[in-house]
Structures are given as C-alpha cells and as structure tokens.
Amino acid sequence: MATKVYINGTFFDKEEARISVFDHGLLYGDGVFEGLRSYGGKVFRLQEHLERLYESALAIHLQIPMDIDPLAAAVNESLQVNKIDDGYVRLVVTRGVGTLGLDPAQTSDPQVIIIADRITLYPEEFYTNGLKLVTVSTVRNHPAALSPRIKSLNYLNNILAKIEGKQAGCIEALMLNHKGEVAECTGDNIFLVRKGGLLTPPREAGILDGITRQAVCELAVESGLKVQEIPLTRHDVFIADECFLTGTAAEVIPVIEVDSRRIGTGRPGPITRDLIQRFHQLTRR
Ligand code: PMP
Questions:
Q1: Are 48 and 158 within one domain?
Q2: DSSP H/E element including 47
C-alpha cells in the first residue's frame, strides 16, 4: 500500500505530497518538528511530544494553525490510514510560503505535515554489544543563540557533528556545550552510571529535553536508583561505570567506549541492561 502523507487535513499519496519551494521551512529551516514512536498502534507519550512541539513553536513565534487535540487525532489517523502499529511518525510544521526575504511576517499559512512510516533502528548488534562514541569539535548550539530545547527544522549543528562522528567511524557522536561540558549526542541524550546512581546533564547544559530521557529518569527512580541532573565533563564520562543513550528512535542503547577509552568493563552494564528491559516493558504496556 502506498504511503499516505497528511498535509493540512488532507491525505496525499507519497508522490503527490508536496510543499512549495517558497516555504520558509525549506528556504531557512524555519519551522519545528517532532519524531514519535508507536507501539502496538499507540503513540508513546503523544501528549508530551505535542507539548514540546507547541513550546518549540512558541519559542520561534510560530502559530500552529490547529489545536493540540485535533493534531493528536491527526497523528493517530495517520497511523491508522497507513495501517502501522509499530512505527515512527514525523510531525513537521513549517513557517509556510513567503518571499525570498527572511521576514516571517511576509509568510502565510504554516504547513502541518505528518509522515507515518516504519521504523529503522540502529542495528541490533549495537544493543547487544554497545556503541562507540567520539567527542566531536562541533560545539552544541549556544542556548542564547539558538536553544537546543527548540526542536527546529534547522538541524545543521547536529548534522555537522554527525558527519564528524562518522568520519571517525562512529554512528553517534558526543557534543559538548560552549563551556566544554557534556551536552548530548547528535540525536540522543546521554546518561552515566556512577556508584549505582544515574548522572545526566541538566537542561541548562543546552540539550533537547528528551521525552525518552524523562521516561528513563522515571523508570530509574521507580527501580530505586538515584538520578542526578548535574553538569558533566568528559572526565566524568571516562570514569563512569556505565554509559547509555536515550532517544525516541534509539530507545535505550548502551555505550561501551568514548574517545578510545573503555567505559566500565567495556560491555553493556547491568543497570543499563535493566533499564533497557524496563523501557521495553513500559512501551509495550
Ligand atoms: N537530543 C537531540 C538533539 C535529539 O534530536 C533527540 C531526538 N531525536 C533527542 C535528544 C532525544 O529526544 P527524545 O527522547 O524526545 O526523542
């Protein structure tokens, strides 16, 4: 069956789903987005994702042309129309068609796009054996310039870091903030295990406030672990007992090496493996 893409209330065949070349989403990366997962036909933490989308939009002065409830319904409908139970949903809101100038006041009609698709995960071996990371020289966007909390259509900061990581042979890369502290990875948040508790950079480190990050913090607390959101350095990463990443697409994935330093035993650790289990149970509940 051909994929159906939602644009402003109408479903189009994939080939017919089109946006103007004058849309500022294309011309300037002016817009916001979300990536969501569905498990057994139900979207994981849909409300949280939509709230983050509206917050991103608010931060860039973009008025999403529909309310949160009808948008939630449209996301669910996109999955049903495409007969997808376990999948990935990309929700995009662009600034809309404008002139060639920057001014958003010269644009009209933000475009709401929903693409429901099958999910492509990191290869299974990385979940069993863990990932290797490198720290890249591309600094995470300064929060006072462009807050990483805005999930905007301009992902160049992350893309440049991803390219650097891949050049070093790693599929994910660690980014530091302007102060040299650990921020996050190109598309995932980072956690360390240290002396039986979890450490993760605070939102003020300049990170995306990850939905999976939040879910994992809740699961950790439930299981009796102490979770601290504190500024971290590369040194903290090197001396961690365990390390893992969280993200909508990646879920929870172990990290076993950073900048050629082995983390812990060099194998996915017991706390990471337990949290992976708990996260699976949560998504399939
Ligand atoms: N950081 C960045 C830069 C991201 O793009 C993402 C989402 N892909 C995450 C962290 C993880 O956030 P979430 O758990 O909400 O997917």
A1: no
A2: helix 46-59
| pLDDT over 80 at 87, yes or no | yes
Our mutation pick for probing the ligand 1 site, out of 146, 189, 200, 209, counting the most ligand atoms within 8 A of Cβ, is: 189
> Is residue 131 located within the same domain as residue 265?
yes
Our mutation pick for probing the ligand 1 site, out of 208, 212, 217, 279, counting the most ligand atoms within 8 A of Cβ, is 208
Is there a single domain that holds both residue 157 and residue 199? Answer: yes
Q: What is the pTM of this model?
A: 0.97
Q: Does 134 share its domain with 80?
A: no
Predicted local confidence at residue 20, as pLDDT:
98
Could you give the CA distance from residue 202 to residue 211 in angstroms, rounded to a whole number? 14
Same domain? 43 vs 154:
no
pLDDT: which is higher, 259 or 121: 259
Overall average pLDDT of the 200-207 stretch: 98
Assess whether 47 and 103 both reside in one domain.
yes
Segments forming the whole domain that contains residue 98: 4-117
Rounded Cα distance, 214 and 217, in Å: 5
State how far the Cα of 208 lies from the Cα of 123, in Å rounded to an integer. Answer: 24
